[in-house]
């Protein structure tokens, strides 16, 4: 069983910044964050809670 639980949009951004990601930046319909050449799309334009399934896909 997964130990992940849903997180808010702001909490995800805060934790990614703690891992040295920059952003979020606007780019078309979705926001993204950068760390060197790595780009992570944050598909949550309404800034609601991010579910476990979506969180697992973002982290992969």
How many separate domains? 1
Report the average pLDDT across residues: 85
Question: What Rg is obtained from the alpha carbons, in whole angstroms?
Answer: 11 Å
Helix percent band: 25-40%
Largest sheet: 3 strands, antiparallel
One letter per element, helices H and strands E, the order comes to HEEEH
What is the terminal-to-terminal distance? 17 Å
DSSP strand count: 3
Principal-axis shape equals globular
Summarize the SSE layout with pairings.
Elements (H helix, E strand, L loop, with lengths): L8 H10 L3 E6 L2 E6 L2 E5 L9 H8 L1
Antiparallel strand pairs: 1-2, 2-3
General description of the model:
With 60 residues, the protein is of the alpha+beta class. It has helices at 9-18, 52-59, and strands spanning 22-27, 30-35, 38-42. The longest helix is centred in the first third of the chain and has 10 residues, at 9-18. It has a three-stranded antiparallel beta sheet with strand order 1-2-3, covered by helices on one side. The mean pLDDT is 85. β2 (30-35) and β3 (38-42) form a beta hairpin.
Summarize this entry quickly.
The chain has 60 residues and is of the alpha+beta class. Helices cover 30% and strands 28% of the residues.
